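Data deposition worksheet. Section B asks for the primary sequence of the deposited chain exactly as it was used as input, without tags or linkers unless they were present during the calculation. Section C holds the resulting structure in token form. Section D is free text for depositor observations; keep each observation to a single sentence. Incomplete worksheets are returned to the depositor.
Section A, Depositor: J.P.
Section B:
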Amino acid sequence: MASDSLLWVDKYRPSSFDELSFHEDLTKRLRNLCSSNDIPHLLFYGPSGAGKRTRAGCVLKALFGPRADKKKVVHRVFKVGESSKQVEVTTVASSHHVEFNPSESGNNDRLVVQELIKDMASFAPIDMTSSNVSIKKSLKVIVLHEVDQMSRLAQQALRRTMEKYSRTCRIIMIAESVTRVLEPLRSRCLGIRVGLPTEGHIQSVLSGIAKREGVSLPEPLSKRLAQQSSRNLRRAILQFEATRVSVGGLDLPPGAPIMRGDWEYACNDAAILMTRSQSAQQLVHVRKRLQELLAHAIPPDVILRRLVENILNIADDEICPEICQLSAKFDRNLTNGTKPIFHLEAFAARFMQVYAQFLRSQAVMLD
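Section C:
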């Protein structure tokens, strides 16, 4: 009964290599790694919705078997520095591994990561001369999500801590942008890029879910779901389930409207506002939309990316290269800064200035 309450994206998430349905070469490579005598630190990187976390979970299952599935949520409290301040973090742990998102600790990510690894590494060290079975039993694994969102200080501390406890534990890191991970940290891991699935692969996964749920999924609707997901498998599955709920039955019509998140409509509205009028008052309206998106926990880099995509669909092709340059500049500012609203609003203001100048130049040419 518990599985019935899960979202399809979690209910049908593969938990072993045998259940993975695409990237066969990568799956074979990971199998070989897990069967080797010594597995290195791993860095899974690639776009959102490609399957990085899923494959990290499959690695854990291959190493520890069913024990890796016996997970529980653990709330831990860490003392920050010499002060009496404490930071509470949420982890998911089994007897052999722990999963944690360091970016949730904010400015305290460095101290929390160090303490977490120190705790996990306090077990008996790995005997590198023993059989593979013995290594699996004594190996402790720490899975760090969104490593590219960690501060530079935290990444530097992670590198030093990895070296110190390399005999007692292994780190599996997950990131979207490998360029945001410091090179000294990358060099100590085996990088594994997980690319986006093809639209054909997405349709195949959706058809499999539909069959298991007893839902009739027409080919035209399946194709539209794959196309509108931008090859993001997680988004495609979520939109499929939302569409099924909105229709209210098991027989989906080919022309059923695909449900999208409210945040996507909000990003589209902000892009329309920015291209419709370029005034101080309009910027105030745009800022309000951006604040609402941030308040609903939409990641700032996702907001910027979606804004740029929508603007590129609206704006003239002639100005698109300059828009891309602006987005690259402010994406870097978002990474290095601590106040996302400042950089998102600065991007909006700069774009509106550039776009207003472009429109004036076009008007002069027509005259």
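Section D:
Residues 2-193 form a domain with the Rossmann fold fold (CATH 3.40.50.300).
Residues 340-366 form the longest helix (27 residues).
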